[in-house]
Records
---
Amino acid sequence: MDEPRSVKFLGLLRVLLRHGVDFIVVGGVAAQLEGAPILTLDLDVLYDKAPGNIGRLLAALRELKARYRDPAGRRIEPDAEKLQTLRTHLLLTELGALDVLDAIGNGRTYQDLESRAIGYELGELRVRVLDLAAVIESKEQANREKDRAALPVLRQTLAMKTSHGRNEGA
Amino acid sequence: MAQPPASAPDTPKQAPGPPAESPDGVDLTLIRWTLSLTPLQRLELLQDWVDGLAELRHGRAAER
């Protein structure tokens, strides 16, 4: 597989949705969709670990020719067992970098955060996106340097959205 | 009651309208702009940034 020049956000979402994968967009793309000008080079999704969903996710990842981003350059592909047991899957696909996560922040799962997801219509696609307050909480909990660096913009955006009563979700 | 002068010599002039920057240095104009866009436009904007970076990186790699 040729290295993709850059991630194709809509393309990745389209494949996941076509396979009926239950997921929530989190991380930088969620922040951007919520209005925070954050640059990110991958798509992060939080997935439901229900057995049926693991199968749908695996089918989507196979279509995307996903493999783990392995520093040693080995070709390691995701499988049902890894998706069921491992927590973080940092993948490279033919449409760019895709991080498939079973928990974010201090261990919050799809079930924990489902109520914090907002439905967004992106053209013909309908996706669920973690709300900005929950994105902020997850970054505060993760507390990595890159998370801390993004927090001032995220907090300011949330303050401005709140003061204007903005909520674009469908 | 005495009023402060409209522009004291040692007071920086404030631009009219909402502030462009927060006290901690966040560019508020950029946030206002992204908030004015639809969610799809925001994602397309992010895609443009990412594609632009990739082009720059690819161009630089080709120069080496």
Note: The interface with chain A takes residues 22, 24-28, 30-35, 37-40, 42-43, 45-47, 49-51, 53-55, 58 of chain B (CB under 8 Å).
---
Amino acid sequence: MRRPDLTQLAVGLAIVVLGVLLLLQEEGSIDIDGGWLGAGLTACAGTALLASGLGAREP
Amino acid sequence: MRDGGSGLRRDSRRAVLGGVCAGFARWLGIDPIITRVGMVVVTIGSSGAAAVGYLIAWALMPSDAGEPARRRDRRGRKGGWRIAGGVALLVISALLVFRQLNIWWSDAVVWPVALAAFGVALLWTLTRQQAEEEEESEAEVDAGVRDSDTRPMPAELRRGAPDETGGWWRAKRASAIGFGVALVLGAALLFLWAVGALNAVSDVALAALVVAIALGLISAPFWWGMGRRLGAERMARARSQERAEVAAHLHDSVLQTLALMQKRAGEPDEVAQLARRQERELRSWLAGEQPRPSERLADALRAAAEEVEETHGAPVDAIVVGDAPLDERSEALVAAAREALTNAAKFASDAGPVHLYAEIENGSARVFIDDRGPGFDPDAVSGDRRGVRESIIGRMKRHGGKVKIRSAPGEGTEVELSIEGNGR
């Protein structure tokens, strides 16, 4: 079976999580202000970069 | 995936406190200073709350005590800047989370400290890398001095042409240093601005900035010219070193052999043997390869041909295409080939050189040894002739290989030895 690309997987999961959070906020279930959004976006970018760097080391 | 797949463990050898940050850094394959700076920044930002996380990690992570020391793998640096950037962004994200949770000290302190810490970490890492590279380069040059036949090229030449790869590498390094300096200066300005100290000196700072820009514009052509001159000098030095390496090698090998050939001009066989040995050595040197007959199949076959030629004084032409690591099966192949070469050298060297041709691909290897000698009838070989029966046919069969012998009286002999790849 083809191995999943670590970078694409991490970025995809991060986008899904962000999308769900924004959807819940839009519905009014949760309240995300700019600070939380900034933290989330930064965490997503960091995870993607980290995954990309680790993926580059795969033999 | 990382570091030999040994898992996440505390690194007791590079530990400052408990070895947690060094352990994470080893697991990620980055410089421990990056994880340490991240930990310190998050701990300061969270007013010490993150230290609890450190203690938990210390308790959960097993120690590497008792494990043998591992050599640092320089190839592991691939993707290092992306990993470091990812760690930095995750640290910033953690700071933002602590800020949102009101576990926070002060914007005026935490953000400047974070910026300055990452700037210093970057500069420190670059400095350490350069020192390590210089040490390695010096060690290689020392090794080259000990072994004049394998003198390495200067580091600049090995990195590529000085004006291409070397220039790109230097530009990358300079921009990384500039980024580190900018982070530290930005942190200082941010702190001054946050505590209101910048207002008092803003006029002076603006005047100083304008003067600095003006001076920079005036001196820019000078710096540019000096940079070009330095680059040209470095290239000239690298060329000169390369020329010296070539001259030294030619003296140690070709000129010495030519002198020896002049002394033995009355012994044509020996002169031919010297010339062939020198040709092989020169070809290997031009290809930039150091023969490793105990590790590589191609080198082992060439070494066997050379050995037979020297032992029996019979010329052996060896052509090997492809290569593979030496294992038990290929060692048997080399031994069988040596035996076939020996037979050819003993019985057929008067009829011209013995030829060895080998093809190695995807773990499979086929070796042909042929001569123009008197030949023989393979079916008529008696059972007590162990050279062919045991050392060639028996040995190859025991290791899953095949042997074909094509020969007839008066028509020379061709021995074909083959082993298939692991997926046979």
Note: Chain A has a mean pLDDT of 80.
---
Amino acid sequence: MTSSSPSNRVEIDVEVNGRRRTVAVDARDTLADHLRNDQKLTGIKLGCEHGVCGACTILMDGAAVRSCLTLAAQGDGRSIRTVEDLSDGAALSPLQEAFKRHHALQCGFCTAGFLISATELLESNPSPTRDEVIEALSGNLCRCTGYQTIVEAVLDAAGQIGN
Amino acid sequence: MKLPNIRYASPASIEDACDLLSADEDSKIIAGGQSLLPVMAMRLAQPSVVVDLGNVPGLTDLEEAGDYIRFGPMVTHAAIVSSPAVAKHLPMMVAAGRHIAHPQIRNRGTLGGALAHGDAAGEWPLVLLALNGMVEVQSVRGRRTIDADDLFVGPYMTTIAADEIITDVWIPSHSDGWGYGEFARRAGDYGLANVAVVMSTEGSQISNARVAVGAAVGKIQRVPEAEDVLNGSELSPERAEVASEAGAKSLSYISDIHGSAEYRQGLVQELIRRTIVEAGART
């Protein structure tokens, strides 16, 4: 909602993982702060908090964005999906299954961000090439895996293994 | 780090946004926030009020307007890179836009924000200068137009006043030859040296050459010494060599942990040479 009077509290109307609610946030809160602290969606991780590592990546109106580089107030009127929404209860999504199969994670801190970036890619481009996968994941850092298994997992989920 | 304490306003019109900027000299516009929020997190900026343009209608237009493409300031990098009109009329922007950070940043970052931020390593400031574009700005004092040649004055410094907002970006459609080159140690990093070249030919002679350099030299700037070698001459690999050497020699370079001044000069010289050759091949 629009307001021409500056305030340090802001009311936002935001849909998160299919549930819409109106909440008050601090003006200084990033979307990551709000989703983790107020909505308890701690699958989102905060690594660098200035847009470098990609661990906080979420989908906003279908586009992968850094939730640490978006103010909570800028989430007003938006539809947000986080890693918590990818599985159906305990049933993992095909992409998550592929990550498990390929050992595409070790410590897991970066995993939510990778899953979200890969989800955006596969939703817009269901049959990506290896180069397209690498480009889509270029903004996510992983310090454990060396990336190869992550790229393999995304290609597998897309049915592109061996292509 | 967490962001500093701020107040937030979300005006419904450019006029309201201008009023907010004029009411408090420490207020700051937020567009996509992909540069502003990191500098706030690192306490390099601490605005009193963040004025969000996200709810002002009409700022994401991208349209052909006569001999120009007109962009609203809130058009995202991703929208530019995937626009058929941009691909047709301003293909340099597609090539340059792909160098901007990573897809997740390009989904949020905006053209107006990048130009106002005026980062010497920024792709859009360099492209605007090479393509001879302009920005239209508004404040409570009125509207004015600033040519790219008069826009960038130093690192993160532009001639846009603190109370002015970019409302439109105009870039002339180009049928000229163009080249864009950027060197970064990893894909998505800020370039160590960025170069954009535009030129046309009359008969076999080069005319209207515009050679622009960013990153390595700390300020988005044209390179008249290279342009002078090109204009009125016939393009050849040797001419590109001479122009790049004269151009690179005329600039002064940053030196830091990422590379010495000498190294950056070498990068700039080679990128100027390559982009001239590319531009020549496209005329």
Note: The radius of gyration of chain B is 19 Å.
---
Amino acid sequence: MIPALGRFVEALRGEGVAVSPAELLDATRAVEAIGLEDRARFRAALATTLAKGRRQREVFERLFESFFAPPPGPGKGKGTRPGSSAGEGAPRRRAQGGSSGARSRPRADEPRPRARADERRPERKVRAMVEEVRAARRVGRLRVVRVEPRAGETKGPEAGLRCDPGKRDLKRPMTGDEERELAREVPKLVERIRLRSGRRFRASRSGRLSPRRLFRENVASGGVPFVLPLRRPKPRRPRVVLLVDVSFSVARSAGYFLLMAAEFLRIGRDARVIAFVDRPVDATRAVRRWLARGRGAAPQVRAPAARPRRRGRRPGEGIAGPRGSFADLLDSLRGLNLDAPSDYGRALHGLLRSELRPRGRDTILVVLGDGRTNRLDPLPWTLEEIARQVRALLWLVPEPEEQWGTGDSALAHYLPFVDVAVEARDLAGLARGLTEIVRRL
Amino acid sequence: MSTPAALTPEAIESAFAERGFVCTGEVATTLYLADVLGKPVLLEGPPGVGKTEIAKLSAAIHDAELVRLQCYEGLDEAKALYEWSYGKQMLYVQLLREKTAELLAPSADLRSALAVLKSHGDEFFSRDFLLPRPLLQAITSERPVVLLVDEVDRADEEFEAFLLEVLSDYQVSVPELGTIRAKHRPRVVLTSNDTRELSDALRRRCLYLYLDYPSFEDEIRIVESRVPGIGATLAQRLVRFAQSLRKAELRKSPGIAEVVDWALALVAVGADSLSPAVLGRTLGALLKNREDVDRVLAEPSRFRA
């Protein structure tokens, strides 16, 4: 019994369920007490000793089915023979690769969302997807925010080209010049949000006086207080965590978004920026340096030295901060592999396990990304776990709503845990998302 | 410390059924394993699915005393474990004043008086002046005990850590009295409404069971066992109605107890269908929030499918 159970536990650990040795012992004793005759009891015994939470239970159910297959005939299965206590093969094992712990492509017995046949008929696929999101909306507390086209405006990418630059689809290929042209729209949008929110975002000249600094800074004037220094705010946990997908297709949206967000959030103090393609990287300092204004002495964004440059055009070359382009910023981030396939599951799992993990009851997590995770396991429980520890979870999707969750997008798995999802495929959409964030500050 | 004798899962199931509680195999297996492995059981789930009831029935079928510790924010050791009865101590000191004077009369100086007091000093910190709170009650009880730690997620994290210490070896040390060991190992049931993430350490030491709302068939069985006079059609209709309410986003979803109450109310008013008039009169038994009631009464047909 022990080897089979050991492999099962190993597989659970591979899926992120931390089973302790003590729990494995409990499970062994439980199975000894319950026996192997009754599959339901066997399952209950393992579940109660190994899966200590709802999402652990989900993983457990999935793996249990593939590890301990039901006996073929009524009571004739090799494993259900009464008294086969030493049965290494007692519960039949089916999954061979389960114990490797590696996260590979989803298994064949795992239910894929919707049938493949749908993919040949896009309109049905979209409908199925919308149904799924609707279902999510009903159980989860999802609010979807869209920027509605104004009266008389035609929708679609072609129409977007001709009219308002704020409506240009950011996912379409663009040259550096086109990017620069769009970047000029950013200040207008920023100003609009600022006006609408009716709030002041620069530090004000009011607050509590700092007595110690008052004396020190007015020594020169013989103690006559010409300067009234205020207390500096204490460092605190970031109130907003921006988790941005910077893979090829989304990088441009990420660049514009950060450019706008920096106008409202003090990156490094109020906000933390985490970039990811397949694993999370803290980009807070790099982004702050990229956007640092004034005092010309600040260094340029570090040029990529050791890393071979990405081939072809890089998105974000035309999005210039005061210190170089967004593409340069991305190249300078250490630990970020821009050529890797996007892997949301792994990135979220890494975030959950790292000290960067957003938490706190006044923390807002903002995810920017399309959820296209290359058919790798989306591990939606990681987001659920993270969402539980923050005040609100906003997701900006740089795609039209009709495409959410289609193809390799795992958005349908994530949306149930999201409070607000914003359709942000253009600058106007990004600005709309930012409004949602600012409203919650 | 004696270990309680374990009932088999089948025996637990049938004993629960005798008392009108429809118990799934999973619940029975977990309770049985808790006895065999000597572990606390952690029951988690939405309010109103019978978590507390399981602990109560577990006490009943094992012929044990139920000691309940209701957790809340700010619960501390003094309120959970023991306290010295300060009032009683003061009263005794007052009443015994003359006796003390008599005792101290022969001693010539302060030092010898202190020595005399010292030799009697422990009298006021004996078990007579100890106020046992639920945890100590459970440990010192002469009879087998089921200790129900209800809504443990409401207590603070410090208390959770303290609970771990007590539950690991069922002993308590009182500085003045020494260590008190349990005579019978209590069966411990913890419940949580999942409002706060419990620590991994606590989860690890417990057997875990997530109780969800019952399936359609199970809920009909529950209603029929609790409300004898109810017709099969009405039971089906009301359970379907209640289950569709749970899927809708209400402020407070109806638990099993509320469904049973509602069934009793429907039988009491002699209803045989869920007409809007009947709903208007009885819905208060099922939904405990005015907005919810208004919403459902506005379009009851939405929930009947």
Note: Chain A has a mean pLDDT of 76.
